[in-house]
Amino acid sequence: MSETAQATAAKAQAPDPNRWKALTFIALAQLMVVLDATIVNIALPSAQQDLGISDGNRQWVITAYALAFGGLLLFGGRIADIWGRKRTFVTGLIGFAGASALGGAATNEAMLLGSRALQGAFGALLAPAALSLLAVMFTDSKERAKAFGIYGAIAGGGGAVGLILGGFLTEYLDWRWTFFVNIPFAVVAAAGAYFVIREPAGRNRSPLDIPGVVLSTLGLVSLVYGFTRAESEGWGDSMTIGLFVASAVLLAAFVFVESKVKAPLLPLRVITERNRGGVYLSLGLAIIAMFGLFLFLTYYLQIVKGYSPVKTGFAFLPMIAGMITGSTQIGARLMNRLPARLLMGPGFLVAAAGMLLLTQMEIGSSYAALLLPAMLLLGLGMGTAFMPAMSLATLGVEPRDSGVASAMVNTSQQVGGAIGTALLNTIAASATTAYVKDHIAGATTQPQQQLVQLQAQVHGYTNAIWFAVGILVVAAGIAFTFINAGSPDATAAAAGSLEDTEDDVKVPVIAH
To answer: What letters, b where the CB count within 10 A reaches 16 and e where it falls short, cover 134-166?
Structure first.
């Protein structure tokens, strides 16, 4: 190895002295993005009434964000690789803050929907840049475990925090504050990142794959919108079917193009490695189950149990506590001692056990006796599984590919969320309709009819939760089957020394 190459390798291996300070600002930015996925849901009824948004168009407040975020993630990940992770991260934060200010100041429907799409677009820059910064800044296995433990806890529990914060802001201030609250988050994170983070080595200087950008963006937008439309218009709707067909064709064309071009947007080596492929697939399935659960529990607590938005948010605290414990205490402590599959597989099964408890929900179910232990199990299981998954998804990736590998983690989560909301909501709605049809004839008074309606809703929720249990079991099976990497310490020992290349320095490849 030449002296220049040795110096480059040494520089790449040297840990960033400000990496723990940087983690604070990266975690703050990630919390803001995850919060935004749920915080607006609670404010939606108030915003709809204030701006005169029709029932038919209100879903676009959520959909506009999901389409822009999910569709542009791979593009955002590659921009981070080409343009620089720090620059992309700071730009994403500033843009997100601006879009949030626009949303909070919205005076009509178009202004609100436009701001949501802009939030999604800048989030697609921000999220993969944040994770790729972590991936290249924390290379020591023990430090990596702690850093990804914190990141995994935020990624898993931030949505529930959004429910609490959204409830507070909507109930005691105004729905506009669910947008304005992002501004201080973004400003502090951007300022901290600008002064603290040093741009890591390993930038990808290949030209941008324009056909790949177009095909991946259109394919992912079609997929996310297909599931979103299926929820409102039904699975048999001609446009829904057309969107799924278009998505399949576009994504197949994308894979073909990526296998042929010299500098692909998504190098197939990133997803064909069995460990990373297993992480993306199992994580996406777990998110399907989790997103549906957030939706059903929110409805159950507010509509069936009569909780206020704030009380509903606090009811999710045991799940957040479980996620933080599972991620930072169980996952982070055992990640260097056990193979990832022995944390992810059992983690998903523990979460499935918590979900199984929720299939026993009834109108009069006790929070302390049923919901509390179920949420604790869910949080512990998901936190334990998320932490090694986040780390393994970028472990062994060349620095020049870390942005797009990080984007794949976010893509699997975003697409999983869209599928979970649409699929499980459709299952619940069908079961609810069938229950009402079978039982409404016996209800002769208005109180009896109202009781049947509530029982039907709970019946719908529990039916859908059964499917979520099955999905988590499948996720566990995939983790046990596909993921065969050892503990990071063993992996690093087996991988050997760093190899220098013409454009960058490679990090150790995952051992098999």
So the answer is: bbbbbbebeebbbbbbbbbbbbbbbbbbbbbbb
Q: Which residues contact 318 (CB under 8 A, 6 or more apart)?
A: 372, 375, 376, 379
Give the 3-state secondary structure of residue 500. Answer: strand
SS3 140: coil
Q: Which of helix, strand or coil describes residue 235?
A: coil
For the ranges 81-95, 161-175, 414-428, 496-510, the lowest mean pLDDT is seen at: 496-510
DSSP code, position 511: P
- For 134, the 3-state DSSP assignment is helix
Cα 130 to Cα 22: distance, rounded to the nearest angstrom? 10
Compute φ and ψ for 209, nearest 5 degrees: -85, 90
* Residue type, position 432, single letter: T
Q: How far is CA 504 from the centre of its chain?
A: 29
Angle at 134 between CA 494 and CA 203, to 5 degrees: 85
Contact 124, 411 (CB under 8 A): no
Residue carrying structure tokens 């439309």 = 229
Q: Give me the sign of the Cα torsion angle 152, 158, 160, 161.
A: positive
Give Cα 209 distance to the centre of its chain: 25
Residues in contact with 172: Cβ distance below 8 Å, sequence separation at least 6, in sequence order: none
**Cα–Cα distance, 332 to 150 (Å, whole number):** 9
Residue 46: closest CA among 208, 224, 218, 176: 176
SS3 label, residue 505: strand
The residues near 243 (Cβ < 8 Å, ≥ 6 apart) are: 222, 223, 225, 226, 229
Residues β-bridged to residue 505: 500
Tokens 């299952």: give the residue. Answer: 427
Q: Roughly what angle, to the nearest 10 degrees, separates helices 60-83 and 85-104?
A: 160
pLDDT(185) > 80: yes
DSSP state of 376: H
Please name the residue that has the structure tokens 């202004």.
Answer: 111
At 228-263, the pLDDT tens digits run 787 777 788 899 999 999 999 999 999 999 888 887
The answer to whether the beta carbons of residues 352 and 476 sit under 8 Å apart is yes
- Phi first, then psi, for residue 82 (nearest 5°) are -85, -50
**Does the structure show a pLDDT above 80 at 58?**
no
Residue with the two structure tokens 């039904």: 234
> Which class for 207: exposed (0-12), middle (13-18), buried (19 or more C-beta within 10 A)?
exposed
Distance, in Å, from the CA atom of 181 to the CA atom of 101, rounded to the nearest integer, reads 9
